[in-house]
Amino acid sequence: VTVAASLIAALAAYFTYRASRQREEQHSYRTRVVHPRNEEGSGNMRNRICRVCDEPLNSDQQEIITLNLCRHPFHKVCMQSYQLARNLDNQDPNVCPIAACRASSF
């Protein structure tokens, strides 16, 4: 009986861990440095803004992150600030800052 209970507890812990890792991967982001003048397709970034700070995403050597799930781009520093603020408010920090996206994607 003790071995069975230990096995069930270990399996439950494993599946809980695995589910949390999958959620983290879905809501994580990848970092890339964007060079708008040199990168192909830079016209796309030229008119885009960071939806956290409302500043253009076209600065030279600006570090941009793209969320894995929805592919929305943000300044890395802005996204880190957004995540910290949500964390301090005891909210899930790993959601897209765009309200319409958050509502439909998560």
A few lines on this structure:
One of its GO terms (molecular function) is zinc ion binding. With 106 residues, the protein is an alpha+beta fold.
Describe this structure in words.
This protein has 106 residues and is of the alpha+beta class. The chain has one domain (29-105): Zinc/RING finger domain, C3HC4 (zinc finger) (Herpes Virus-1), CATH 3.30.40.10. It has helices at residues 2-27, 43-46, 76-88, 99-105, and strands spanning 29-33, 63-67, 73-75. The protein has a three-stranded antiparallel β-sheet with strand order 1-2-3. A hairpin with a 5-residue loop joins β2 and β3 (73-75). The N and C termini lie far apart (40 Å). Mean pLDDT is 75; it is low at 35-43. Residues 50-98 form the RING-type domain. This is RING-type domain-containing protein. Keywords: Metal-binding, Zinc, Zinc-finger. InterPro entries: Znf_RING, Znf_RING/FYVE/PHD. GO terms for molecular function: zinc ion binding.
